[in-house]
Structures are given as structure tokens and as C-alpha cells.
Amino acid sequence: MAGTAAASPSCIFCQIARSSTTTTLLHTDEKVVAFQDINPSASRHYLVIPVDHIATVKDLRRRTEDYSLVSHMLNVGQTLLSRDAPNSIQYR
């Protein structure tokens, strides 16, 4: 994947992805982890992040692997929302 780098010790998201924090993970697999935002703007404000360090979204490329990752991230978010708020029809 373009822009993928080794985990950065100073990156809070890398620390969360490696379970090096007390953050409760709502979902974890080989590609992504998901957890609640520490400063939520909605009752179910989840963050789904890649396990591999990607510094910014600008580091993603129009490659199959990157499309697959972003699609997987969206699916995980939608699955969590469906699980936790099955009657919800609105999300962003």
C-alpha cells in the first residue's frame, strides 16, 4: 500500500492499533481497528483506522489495495453502527 510505513512510536493511532493504550477497541482485524472518539460529536462517534501507519489520506493512491482498505473501513463502521443503533437511518 502506498504511504504505508512502520508504526510510529509518537503516533497515537499506531499506539491504539497496537493495543498499547487503554482504549477499548470495538473491532479489530488484520487491516483495521475501531474505537469510540474521545471527544465525540455524536452519541456513536466511531473511528476506524488502519493497523498499518498511513500518515495522511493524501498518501493513499488509486490502487486496488487502497480502495479495498477504504471500503473495508467503511464496512466496519457501518457494521458497528448497525450493531449498536439498529434503528438508525442517518450517519455521516
TrEMBL record:
Any one GO molecular function term: nucleotide binding
Keyword Glycoprotein listed: no
Pfam families listed in its UniProt record: DcpS_C
Alphabetical keyword list: Hydrolase, Nucleotide-binding
InterPro entries: Histidine_triad_HIT, HIT-like, HIT-like_sf
Gene3D superfamilies: HIT-like
Source superkingdom: Eukaryota
Keyword Hydrolase: yes
Domain HIT intervals: 12-92
PROSITE patterns, sorted: HIT_2
Record protein name field: Histidine triad (HIT) protein
